[in-house]
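thread from #wetlab-drylab

HS: before we spend reagent money on co-crystallization trials with pyridoxal-5'-phosphate, can we at least see a predicted complex? here's what I'd submit
DV: go for it
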Amino acid sequence: MVTAITSSQEAIDLEDNYGAHNYHPLPVVLTRGEGVFLWDVEGKRYYDFLSAYSAVNQGHCHPHIVQALIDQARELTLTSRAFYNDKLGLAEKYVCDTFGYDKALFMNSGAEANETAIKLARKWGYTKKGIEDNKAIIVAAKKNFHGRTTSIISASTDPSARKNFGPFMPGFEIVEYDDVPALQKALANPHVCGLWIEPIQGEAGVYVPQAGYLKTAAELCNQHSVLLMMDEIQTGIARTGKMLASDHENVRPDILILGKALSGGVLPVSVVLARNEIMLVIKPGEHGSTFGGNPLAAAVVVAALQVVANENLIENAARLGEVFRARMKRLIEKTDLIKLVRGKGLLNAIVINDAPESETAWNICLKFAEHGLLAKPTHGNIIRLAPPLVITEEQIHECCDIIEQVVLAYKK
Ligand code: PLP
């Protein structure tokens, strides 16, 4: 019986032998994290340039968040929503005040928050917009990523998310992302209750729509009485240099969907925010989750959002994002290996100049790891680069030096 891991290979073998093969991890076995750094079981230190897909914006094991977790864990962790608890209301008020909404509904994973948004939009469609029973449509975008549940993958256009997982849930119409005429056409259908989009498509490869797209989308939703459902699970909570990526265009979604960094990566928490007239369509018994709104998560959420404000993470992401992209643009002038850099704040990607199915991005990430920086390709030959937002300017430069060194030395 193995009780402790003594080498990376041992941990990799255990996961391979006993775990489902639903991920393809980089061969690095991590044991400790602090701020922007991770350490493997052999003691090697890495810069984290993935931030658990933007869940650890506040940095690994942030002491203020961990303290809130420990303090609350000693008092009360879970009661279920069968009763009130003395932390949930505080967290609900905190998120409503922070993001400017009337009501909050806490869940656990990002996928669950999106499921919640789908139910809200549909029920609003039937009870407020007057859509005929079972005819509601939600418009989603090509290349979206909202999670992995069966209803969410019903709106996916990614073959690997869908193949052999049908039959799919009806009620979605897919339009091209960043295409205003496609939206104009789709939203005019009176059966449409919601437009469900990401303000920047993260998993698709940090695809930033043209300036004005979100604003126009919001106006079209308003014009056609359609709810704008914004999935800010990856882009929200300071990641793009604003509290929400929607803030770049002063857009206020009707339904805001958050997860990941809402807990600073300490435990799974997600939330859906909306105005009263939307949120209150859901009545007791119609939706819920045993762990959703637990006092442990509630205490952690408040602490995690306090860190964002106290440590000026929004300003840091905005400023260092500029530094990072400027360095990458200079690198592109020196190499043919990278086609472009794109992103906002500290959510960025470099696009590798090779066929999407080639191994180049993966191999570059292996080299990054050798040089002490962890990043992972997203779709095709795109490498997302998203460090914790507590990174300093000096550290960003050090990381850009690593990226530059690896890229310039890389031989296909
Ligand atoms: N929505 C977006 C935009 C995401 O990036 C993700 C995860 O990467 C999700 C939803 C799903 O979140 P979870 O993995 O917590 O279910």
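DV: Residues 313-334 form the longest helix (22 residues).
HS: ok that's useful, forwarding to the group
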